[in-house]
Sequence to fold (107 residues):
Amino acid sequence: MFSGGAGGYLAGLGPLIGEVAGVEPAAITFEKSDGSLHAEVSGALSMSSDQLVGMDGQEPAVITNAPFGAVTQPVRQARSKDVSYHGHWSADFSGTNSFVTDFRYEG
Fold:
């Protein structure tokens, strides 16, 4: 799945991944409410973001047909409130730019 060999969203991202550091089972939770998003992968990743409002002052800021996107559908611009990963390595991206979109993985 991580290689993108099965196609889908990761097919364009797979060639950019040099090495998969590890894979472990974990519970995943996701919450979405009024433009706010929160996702957590138990013990490894926590992220929250808020969608930005577009020029009309009501609807989200949407980017379509981006030349270097990992997904083909429109994305909404957001700002991360807190993003941290502490698994095989550690990183914190709180307060940075964020892009969100709706998707569904099926097997």
The longest strand covers residues 75-86. The helical segments are 10-13.
